[in-house]
Design goal:
70% of the residues lie in helices and 0% in strands. By secondary structure, the protein is mainly alpha-helical. It has one domain. Helix 1 (3-22) crosses helix 4, helix 1 packs antiparallel against helix 5 (73-85) and helix 2 packs across helix 4 (60-70).
Length: 93
């Protein structure tokens, strides 16, 4: 993965994680984030690894992936669409 694509992907993932914490006002939202953070490493899912962005702390990608998943299916679907459709500057379809 080239550096521009990695930067765009990382920006989308950070946006999804930050939005998850911004909306975590209720106890149910915190429960969803906590369950996602716990189930991410248990399941072995790591979206950073899937898109070719290695992290220095191996399990952190699974924790952050779990947090994004804890926000709900619609958020994961929207994030997936953004990642699929992200094109580096200057690249044509």
């Amino acid at each position: 993965m080239n550096m521009v694509m990695a930067l765009v992907t990382l920006a989308f993932l950070v946006e999804g994680i930050v939005d998850g914490f911004k909306g975590a006002l209720s106890k149910w939202a915190w429960l969803a984030l906590g369950l996602g953070a716990a189930l991410g490493p248990l399941s072995g899912l790591d979206v950073f690894e899937m898109v070719g962005i290695p992290l220095r702390v191996p399990y952190m990608g699974s924790v952050l992936t779990g947090i994004v998943c804890g926000r709900g299916a619609s958020v994961v679907y929207d994030l997936w669409d953004k990642l699929k459709g992200a094109k580096p500057p200057g690249e044509t379809v």
